[in-house]
Amino acid sequence: MANYKIRKIKDRFMCILVWLALLMALIPLFSILGEVVLKGASSINVNFLTQPTPTVGEAGGGVANAMQGTVLAVGLASLIGVPIGLMSGIFLSEYSETKLSPAVRFFNDVLNGFPSIVIGIFGYTIIVLSIGFSVMAAAFALAIIMIPIVTRTTEEALKLVPATVREAAIALGVPRWKTIVSVVLSGAKKGIATGILLSLARIAGESAPVLVTMGYWRWWFAGLDKPVANLALNIYIFAISPFENWQTLAWGSALVLVTLILGISVIVRIFTQEKY
Amino acid sequence: MFSPYKFEIESLNAWFGSKHVLKNINMKIKEKAVTAVIGPSGCGKTTFIRCLNRMHEIVPGAKVSGRVLFNGIDIYNEDVDPVQIRRKMGMVFQKPNPFPMMSIYDNVAAGLKLNGIKDKEKLDSVVERSLKLAILWDEVKDDLNKSGASLSGGQQQRLCIARALAVEPEVMLMDEPCSALDPIATAKIETLIRMLAEDYTVVIVTHNMQQAARVSDFTAFLYLGELIEFGPTKEIFENPKSELTEKYITGEFG
Description:
Distance between the termini of chain B: 41 Å
Helix content of chain B: 25-40%
Strand content of chain A: under 5%
Order of helices and strands of chain A: HHHHHHHHHHHH
Strand content of chain B: 25-35%
Oligomer: heterodimer
Largest interface: A-B, 22 and 33 residues
Shape of chain A: globular
Shape of chain B: globular
Helix content of chain A: over 70%
């Protein structure tokens, strides 16, 4: 009996600890969200969402060009990063009997842990030095950040498809590549979509590699060999500027960026809901 | 060249890495009959049946030697495409494994669809015929668009049988198809096996001796990778030649 009482007290104690830990994790999340919403909401209006960056001293203006730029850079990056990541993930999961796989997996993990500024510098030496600061260089650097995330999540999602399902298809006389494309990938598509969207959210918020590959740009899109504006960079440039109008724009940009990333997470949630 | 045998297996050996799991098997499997493979766990029953449609080799480290003549042609010959061989043989696995993201209809049509057949009418008729053959049609005809995974275990297994039948195989290979099912579902599948034997050659692996006695025409007894005895089921069960077989079927070990 006494034993049971002690166990009950221990249970209560641990329960309280767990709740406290949860609270500690939630406080920063909600205070950041709250601050961004409170300070950013006041700067959101039609002008803000449709006008490009104002010049120094000019009143009003907005972040429409930065939204265009971020979507463009992220879109271009995923054109490169998604196919490569997807195929690497398929290779690691479906052709794991090759001796190459452990090495690929190891270097993929190393790449995943690389500081993004280093990847930015790499993009600088490879692309910027030959064609100059441009959205292409930024997309290249962002794609390299994407690849290990997409590879890893694709591999994990594919591994969750039971081996018996693969065997069923192979025993039906379906060639291996077709088994992978039509049976295995369709069984893992939710996990793969989640991985891709998470990597999009991650690169949408990157600023360091963007800074060294295309720098700051105040205008609209002017060609793939020119830079584009960028939400994350807006926050950096506007926030450290001495102009009050720009500082308001920084908060607004932060709100737009956070909303974008939240939106992506919500899409992930909808995607991962069970169909049956 | 007429032969009453669907399979002629000559000195078949199989390995997983360095583990020798099938040792010099020689056996002839008759056409349009049910052949049961029995033996204690780990004796190589499953490996044996997987050697018949070249499924053994898809496991990394697996090796095979010897000859398996299917309709007189060695399926391990270098020129033989394993994909073509597998299309001629339906396989049913120990645990029901319908494709989880597909409807009942798509599960049955999968073998044809994945091999490029798109004709809706043809698919419809094949799905209906296969589900009827598998005695599942009446239970699912109104729910063909539901997920295959929503069915009960016994229904799922019959769905897998329908899926295998849809590609019009010559042979049905069944690897302990009832081991995950209750007695009622088992009885249904056993009836089905007897019906299939009228048109197909059936090879069934089972560790249930009563089942072997009920459904099969021939029985092979494997022990530690060796074929101990093979013959008409009646003889094996009533008058086994080997002492080992007798001990196994009377339940002294296994």
